[in-house]
Specification:
66% helix; 7% strand; DNA-binding transcription factor activity; transcription regulation; MarR/SlyA-like; DNA binding
Length: 146
Amino acid sequence: MKLVLPSKTIFHAIESTIKEYRKFAQKNISEAIEDMTIDQGLVLIFLDEYPDMTQKEIAELVFKDNASMTRMINTMVKKKYLKRSMHTEDRRRFNIEITPKGKEVLKILPPIIQNNRNSSLQGISKNEQKQLETILKKIRANCTNN
């Protein structure tokens, strides 16, 4: 059996689409907030919505390993987007809080993100979006269950 070239598979299409979207979204975010990455913006958004979330929980939501998440949070603390303090009950944990500078970024991000989503989904009906989401969930379930 001859193997189909990786570049001819649906997985290549999915990955290249994600990479193009991230480049597109990063460009638009960088135009408004010079030193902010997509992932740093996501961290702020999740922490704003769930202030008690642990570093590990945030890492899972933004698809980062623990070491990468630690580096990102360290960077965000240096940039003064986040403040870190010792957890009062568990010395192995830290409290992570959004600073006033981080709160300012949270006012700027939503319209940029919404514009990114609208632009990238232009010409794709709600029904097509739902179908794609259903298919992707099936692929993920197949990978998880096997």
